[in-house]
User: What shape does this take?
Amino acid sequence: MALQDLDQSSSDSVTEAAETILSVNNIEVIYDHVILVLKGVSLTVPKGGIVALLGANGAGKTTTLKAVSNLLSAERGEVTKGTILFDSDEVQALSPNELVRRGCIQVMEGRHCFGHLSIEENLLTGAYTRKDGHAAVKADLEMVYNYFPRLRERRQSQAGYTSGGEQQMCAIGRALMSRPKMILLDEPSMGLAPQLVEEIFEIVRQLNEKEGVSFLLAEQNTNVALKYATYGYILESGRIVLDGDAKALRENEDVKEFYLGVGGEGRRSFRNVKHYKRRKRWLA
Amino acid sequence: MLYDIFIDPFVQMYDMPDFFLQVLWEGFVAGILYALIALGFVLIFKASGVFNFAQGIMVVFAGLTLVGLNENGVPAYLALALTIGAMGILAYGVERVVMRPLVNQPDIILLMATIGLTYFLIGFGEFVFGGEPKQMITEELGLPTGSTAIEFGDRGLVILQHIDIAAAVIAVLMVAALGIFFNKTRIGRALRAVADDHQAALSVGISLNQIWAIVWFAAGLVALATGIMWGARSDVSFALEIVAFKALPVLILGGFTSIPGAIVGGLIIGFGEKIGELYWGGLVGGGIESWLAYIIALIFLLFRPQGLFGERIIERV
Amino acid sequence: AAQAEDSNYVPLLTYRTGPFAASGIHIANGMHDYLKMLNERDGGIGGVKLELEECETGYNAQKGVECYEATKGKGALVYNPYSTGITLQLIPKAGVDKIPVLSMGYGLSAAAVGSVFPWVFNVPDTYWDGASVVIKYIGEQEGGLDNLKGKKIGYIFLDAGYGREPIPLLEQLSEKYGFELMQYPVGVKEMQNQSSQWLNVRRDRPDYMVMWGWGAMNPTAIKEAVKIRFPMDKFIGVWWSAGDDDAAAGGDGAKGYKAMNFSGVGSDFPALDDIKKHVVDAGLSSTDAETIGGTLYNRGVLNSVIIAEGIRTAQELTGKKVITGEDMRMGLEALNLDEARLKELGLSGFAHPMKVTCDDHAGSHPVFIQEWDGSQWRQASGWIEPMTDVVRPLLEAAAAEYAEKNAPWPARTEPCPN
Amino acid sequence: MFYREAGQFKTSYKADQALMPILQDRVGLLVILAIAFVVIPVFANDFFLTSIMIPFLVFSLAAIGLNVLTGFCGQLSLGTGAFMGVGAYAAYKLTTIFPDANVIVMVLLSGVFSAAIGAIFGLPSLRIKGLYLAVTTLAAQFFLEWCFIRIGWLYNYNASGAIEIPHREAFGLVVSGAEATPIVRYFIVLCITAGIAFLMANVLRGRIGRSWMMIRDMDIAAELMGIRPLQTKLLAFAVSSYICGVAGAMMVFFWLNAAEPSSYSIALSFQILFMVILGGLGSLGGAFMGAAFIWILPVFLKFIPGTIGIDVAAETVEHVTFMIVGALIIFFLIVEPHGFARLWQIAKQKLRVWPFPY
Amino acid sequence: MNAFATEMSAEPASVAEAVPREELLRVDNVSLSFGGVKAITDISFDILKGEIRAIIGPNGAGKTSMLNVINGFYHPQQGTITWQGKERRKMKPYEAASQGIARTFQNVALFKGMTTLDNIMSGRSLKMHRNFFWQLIWRGPAEREEIEHRKKVEEIIDFLEIQAIRKTPVGRLPYGLQKRVELGRALAMEPDLLLLDEPMAGMNLEEKEDMSRFIIDVNQEFGTTIALIEHDMGVVMDLSDRVVVLDYGKKIADGPPEDVQANQNVIDAYLGVSH
Ligand SMILES: Nc1ncnc2c1ncn2[C@@H]1O[C@H](COP(=O)(O)OP(=O)(O)OP(=O)(O)O)[C@@H](O)[C@H]1O
Ligand SMILES: Nc1ncnc2c1ncn2[C@@H]1O[C@H](COP(=O)(O)OP(=O)(O)OP(=O)(O)O)[C@@H](O)[C@H]1O
Ligand SMILES: [Mg+2]
Ligand SMILES: [Mg+2]
Assistant: This one.
């Protein structure tokens, strides 16, 4: 535990500084009754915070997010231990649509647009739980189109036929349409052009600052994620192995080595990667 | 031979115009009735991507409940109200017991579950109502029963059954109402979303439970209307379940997801089947109605694999 | 078979479910109630109780075979399959398992030829007998069979073995008497959807319609006939299209619809009173008193009368109380239900006297025509003899053909009791 | 603990590719075969053989056939009943045209006819997919059923319109017709079913089986990898129909003894489909489990009241059976949508880690 | 044993420019539209034998559509494609496969119901020939063929380091591994041209590094030509020999990575300020 001291101090400061909107306490998740995926994960998201959840493929990021938004049952998975509190309510007792109504929405990994609906209809489904009238929805639709002009161009196209990136924008836009208090973003940058990645994270920051929306984002693009997040958790094989302030994580040697790709002498070239089995120190 | 196939039928149509009109009328009525059954399927398919095999038995079930209540002394209109209530309970039960635990499963599994439901309802229905056929309480419900003959001078006559006219009117009203409900409300959009992707629909806050209860209830109402109409033509009995198969080609021809498709498909099949059987069926010994509908549907499909009004099948990598 | 020593076991293959339940239920009730009545009133037959067991077939051949296999080991005396399909499957087994098959007025017509089918009985008539009676009756209406020349007779039938069975005979008669036979098959799936067939009828304008229907097909056909305004008095059904519900479905318009019958009309028979008293009122039946006397109910009763008389005859012939399938076969073959016996049974006039011989297992007994008066059936003709001269040679030819196709079909070895 | 592959290392690809790489599975199979070939013939009575085992095996084979098409190649078919019918009628014609030929050979040959018909009805599958394809197979179902009724030649113009299986002998035994003993018929059915199941297991683990599964899982990707969709699907249709045809022929020759067209109705198609889905799409073992469930359970349910001495009306038993079967179908789907085969796998996995929960 | 990874070239790809390369594929004036949507407008470029050719551009620019055109899944309304010197007209996707074009997909298109091993074996389908009869028998020729190909597949498995998931159904694998299996499946086809559609999307740095190494190895060891779509500019810059940039269906730049990166059009349309 190389970072003991660091994460001690920082996590304390975070938890005390602000009210928490989401807290996950020591959860275990099992798929299909036999596949144990999360082995005691705990994390908290403060109100108005942006928290990044990092980790390799298969670490369990998606699973964690789904546990939070209560979508696991649709995948034959279940939370067998621990509790999840959103706005101090037990998530497990709420239905997914109730959660959305209360302001917690997930952008699912791998886009999941409604293929047969047009882009605009897709966006409108995001407003399903809203009760504040046509005008407000219309205004938000405009807002989303302003964030993603590309979507405005393709608004009448069937989502199933749009390009991968367009679908990703659509999925994010759809979530925004519900006016959430908290967004669970699963790999928002996947498949997006670099320019757009920046833009999306800018949007995240704007929403966070202007509207006070909290974020929990699972991301592979550690660089960007840690740039925008306030706090980060690193998940490996179903366990949190490291957590801390984003800044502190960015400085951490291991994180640098394995997630940011910057050694002492700056960025490594992909061409020159040596073939050796690396080992993460914290797994020792 | 060639004459029999290509010329004679048309000569016949010309020679007996009254008969031809009658055939068209029968085709129309049959089409409307098929469309009614298909409509029930469409509702549920549209809303969940589930092919509801139990629609046929729901028709029987609704009809039997109505008649059964009436037989036990409940006045017709009260029985109707109670039957609607029963369909509501059924819808809720199905949602609770079958659909909810099977969310996000492949279509074929859900299809299979509805087959399980069919079995259950057959057993339950016969247990409660017995297997005897019952007569539809057409008159008690205030539906017309007579018939009108339109004469063409000396060229014969066309007989229109009033109940058939009523069926057509009811079908059209129902389609209009459902069409408006599903297209003009946000529920309509949500339905299609659910059919595309259960999990994503959940994630944007669409309550599958609520949606499913609604559509199953709507399908139950359609089943009741269908049960009354078919029951008035023959009897309300479990044999009626078989006519549900007739809805398949209609459905496929119209496209699984289209309410107008059900009507248009029904009419095409209705007309095609009657004209085919009456003018060409004799050539091969008759009874071709049992498969003609499928062949008609198949021919259409070869040109439009998603049916006439169905949503495009998305193929993209 | 190791069955109870003090009872005779009669399995009843019935169907109260499935698409043909509409007809099957009444038959099942009639069959069951009469035998049950014998148990209650007389303590069985010859002092030995009957052990009854219903097995539900749903008119489905697979389930029928399953019922057969499940019950045959319990010492079954006779099988009444009530489905042409099941009958066909049981015919070859009957001789092997030594249990007779009684298909009363249905099944394989050729089975009437006792020398080829010693184990199968189809008293009182085969379908061919029936078809010949219909033609004869139509001839009478027209003032003589010769007047049939140039007439059109429509034949609407369930498109299955059952409905197709009479066709060879009808074709032969059409040739002989010069009427035109027009066929209107109704698929099992189309039973409740016959508008095409009846449109065809409307176009072809046959002078008479003959129907071979079952289950839900009957009421639908009658309704459709009313719809196209076909003259109902020229519409004649086989004895299986003679249910009370069938005709009632047509409402007022069905008045005048006719059907053949060979079992009593109404409930005005002492034996039926006994059924009411001992069985229905005692709560031992699954039907209520009103259905007693319905055509199909009575048909079921008649079926059981034949079973009971078969058992009684067998007991007399063998001197045993508890008999076997082989004894039963003999009993059936020696069946002689004459007027006196019918009277004794409290069923005088319930059926025409019947007699089975080793050679003729059907007997080609007379049949009458009944007519629907809008609320119930009444007898509309005297007993009409089938055209035995035409039917019998056809039966023999068919039996020979069956034996040939199923070669090596076992030659008859069973002794003739009479 | 008891079910473990630990210690069973594979030293060659050959061993690794064997049908059952794990010892316990092989032993299990041997036990089942021993029961089927020895225990059952010795102890079973006629009812058990004719009403349970023979139909069970026939249905298992049909379910394997449908599984090839629907479970492995992903093409939904509702025409199984009719394809079985083609086999039955073909076998009937063959045995009556060649009265001296061995019926078992004729039964095996009859599948060729249903394979051809199946392939013809498979042609539209190039363009039509999923539930829509069901209409093609339904067209096949109803059209063929109509042929069975209308084409007198098929049933040798029998007045009954049904096919009745003639008495035939082979290997010195009566193998068909009413005199064929249950035990003989059982052995024939058992050998054919086991044989075809074994051959199919071979096909399914090789290139052809894989190409079917590729089409099933993602037809576009399969095509981009060089699979010709039409050929592959047609082969699946043909193989599936062959197996169904043989099953259909066995159904009438070794079980029912006579068949009307309605024996091969849509209801049969559905029955087989249930077996495949409940057993597990894409699993050979599942086909057997599904057949057992769908066929044997109702039979047992029907005889339970009688055996425990409750007097229930026959139709009530039937109604309750329907309700129970329906409820169980739903129940099992909820427990495990992938069928008994998957349930079995999970059970094995649990055994593997036993006594720990995971 | 790992046949490919043993010899690892550590030097940057300078060899590439030395030999003038033969043209493998040329796209001339191709246009493709769907209804009103113009996905590709009049695009021409070529791919040389043995190179790594990157295709980049903003979302919806038409990159994936371009790959679909190349392997015959879409048929362009205009333009021609020349493959190994021969001009091709309408071609079925499976013909492209048999001519040696393999690809991976943007939204992983694995065969979900099959194991990793079977997925990769499926890549060998075109190379296996034993007919139905031998398959039935299994013992003998079919089995020998299977084993022979299994060996090749095991080499690929070793190479991609996915031994541990050999027998896992791919549906349950995490996204990154699925992409790796998909690459393996394409490699199993031993293609002349390998089309990779965003092979590194959704991977973290470590995995990207691994993937990069695989791509380089394939390119250098087998001499397989690679066309690569990728949004990670680091990867594109480091791996590719030449880059073509699409925007709204049009080609806006084509050349060596450094040039492209400096191109103002590209910066405006795609890279944004921070790069
Ligand atoms: N439905 C499921 N059934 C069984 N196992 C599953 C299922 N979904 C995920 N898993 C397993 O759970 C583990 C964690 O998966 P998860 O998708 O949460 O990882 P992740 O961190 O999001 O990875 P990635 O970065 O690739 O998206 C993986 O090993 C995966 O195989
Ligand atoms: N089959 C199709 N039908 C209709 N439009 C299509 C189809 N295929 C692609 N398009 C459209 O063509 C355009 C180009 O799509 P393409 O998938 O090639 O983009 P891309 O460059 O791969 O983008 P991304 O980086 O987001 O994957 C998009 O606007 C898309 O919506
Ligand atoms: Mg993930
Ligand atoms: Mg793309």
Confidence is low (pLDDT under 50) at residues 1-17, 275-284 of chain A. DSSP finds eleven helices and twelve strands in chain A. The interface with chain D takes residues 30, 32-36 of chain A (CB under 8 Å).
